[in-house]
Design brief:
The protein has one domain. The chain has 4 helices and no strands. The protein is flat and about 55 Å long. The termini are far apart.
Length: 87
């Protein structure tokens, strides 16, 4: 397998497991974590092209600091909406 293929496959497998790990406790299969992981692939290539430039570092830290909490908040929002619908 090529290096690019292995890179894509590892991100895909990681995205699937992230989705399972987060969606099961929240009882809401919404693909927020999956797409959050998949969208890191173009981010890797973008920041790689900006290597040695401070903007690449800023993009990385903003995406890590805001992306993951946003994903968990979206699951929580869906969880609350499901709980309200069941009541």
């Amino acid at each position: 397998m090529s290096q690019t293929g292995a890179f894509m496959l590892s991100f895909f497998i990681s995205a699937v497991f992230h989705e399972v790990i987060i969606s099961v406790p929240f009882r809401a299969f919404r693909l927020w974590a999956f797409w959050g992981m998949v969208m890191q692939v173009p981010l890797v290539y973008l920041t790689k092209s900006l290597q040695g430039n401070q903007i690449g570092n800023v993009i990385f830290w903003v995406s890590i600091s805001l992306g993951q909490p946003f994903s968990v908040l979206m699951y929580y929002k869906d969880f609350i909406l499901l709980q309200a619908a069941e009541a």
